[in-house]
């Protein structure tokens, strides 16, 4: 049985290296102090720990400080459908805003830590700081757009297109967080990738082998390097943007 997640005291949000993902640009020193006072603690998770479970009442939203989490929904027949992978600086728990209860499980894929943002306190502060409220609206909009694009990929893209797009997007998201460009460790298993992309684990393994044979990637266990990025864009049926930070596919 997993141990209960551990709560930790927190340093200031304004000095966090991930502040660019959570805090809007241009806040005054006074407003930054208010944001710092809003987030008072973090929660530590071991691999396999749940940040929250489906049906839990909402008290907070969470910002990943380090590590990787997945969100998944358990179907009536007991199968788990993965609906997202979440990296440092990304927000979890937004699914509970509508009716006050979480609609999925959020599980740590590795040892992780998340900042706790008490939602009622956040709403009160956001009403006082328009730029903070606008930032939150942008996050909600981005989440909705990402969900729509993922559904589109499931309905219209071939397995190899989905996998190529997934690898490109994951690389871009990690690069934005300071990781080596186009080289990273996969924190999710082949089975978890297949669940998210809507393809069988055997197909994931077969497609990765084909990518290696075609010179598109190198892979050793879970460490992957994208070799022919242009070829992956072509395979995914995507135009390579001049600014790769514009990529937002299958997040």
Descriptive tags:
251 residues, alpha+beta, five-stranded antiparallel beta sheet, four-stranded antiparallel beta sheet, 8 helices, 22% strand, globular
Account of the protein in words:
This protein is α+β, with helices and mostly antiparallel strands. Helix content is 39%, strand content 22%. The chain has helices at 19-22, 29-38, 119-128, 130-156, 159-176, 190-197, 201-213, 229-236; strands spanning 6-9, 41-45, 50-52, 60-66, 69-74, 80-86, 91-92, 105-108, 112-118, 183-185, 217-220, 223-226. Strands 1-2-9-4-7 form a 5-stranded antiparallel sheet. Helix 3 (119-128) packs across helix 4 (130-156), helix 5 (159-176) packs across helix 8 (229-236) and helix 6 (190-197) packs across helix 7. The radius of gyration is 19 Å and the shape is globular. The model is unreliable at 244-251 (pLDDT under 50).
